[in-house]
Amino acid sequence: MSVICAFAGIFLIATHGRLNSLAISFPALFWGLISAVCFTIYCLYPQKLYNSYGLVNVIGWASLFASIILLLVTRTFTFPHMNIQILTASLAVAIVGSLIPFTIYGIGISILGSVKASLFVTVEPVTSALLTWLVLGTKFSGMDLAGFLLILGSIQMVAIQTFRNEKAIIQAEQTRLP
After folding, report:
1. How confident is the model at residue 146 (pLDDT cuts 50, 70, 90)?
2. HEC string of the chain?
3. Cα separation of 19 and 28, whole Å?
4. Which of 18, 48, 136, 155 has the greatest number of CB atoms lying within 10 Å of its CB?
């Protein structure tokens, strides 16, 4: 039910409830769908690697290889204006903006599981929208707000069900104790 609510919320935000039109641009839809596919692969595929080699090892080596490939493709090391301040800032963004969040998210996946973790991540578009409202003064329609509420509600459904399941497990264990 929570997955359906999350999808319904995203649908309302993207279409404002109209099946024949989008409330977002086509490039936004295209890149959003590409991002969703990549995110799904990111959540589900590396579980065997995490179990075999450890989360930090997999993310660390993947980040290192991706950085080397990106460096070779973009050839940013040949830019004449590169200095130690730019390199330091880039390293800070890579570590604080990518490595640490991806590692923490990977730990969350191992604790919660892929489905629950991906539901919690659906709050990111709501957070982004809130920030655009606060910082840029963007206006939102009633459909947008309904979509936000559905997304946040889906997360609450998962949290409530998890709490109930844990409570039932604790009660079952207590009744087995002599």
Report:
1. very high
2. CHHHHHHHHHHHHHHCCCCCCCCCCHHHHHHHHHHHHHHHHHHHCCHHHHHHHCHHHHHHHHHHHHHHHHHHHHCHHHCCCCCHHHHHHHHHHHHHHHHHHHHHHHHHHHHHCHHHHHHHHCHHHHHHHHHHHHHHCCCCCHHHHHHHHHHHHHHHHHHHHHHHHHHHHHHHHHHHCC
3. 17
4. 155
What confidence tens digit (pLDDT) does each residue in 43-97 have?
777 778 878 888 788 888 888 888 889 888 988 777 777 788 888 888 888 888 8
Specify whether the CB–CB gap between 84 and 90 falls below 8 A: no
User: Which two three-digit tokens encode residue 88?
Assistant: 């330091």
Q: Examine the pLDDT at 9 and tell me if it is beyond 80.
A: yes
Pair 13, 148: CB distance under 8 Å: yes
Residues 141-144: contacts with CB within 8 Å, 24+ apart?
Answer: 141/16, 141/23, 143/12, 143/13, 143/16, 143/17, 143/23, 144/12, 144/13, 144/16, 144/23
The pTM (predicted TM-score) of the whole model is: 0.55
75 or 122: whose pLDDT is higher?
75
- State both tokens at 150: 């559905």
Tell me which amino acid residue 126 is.
V
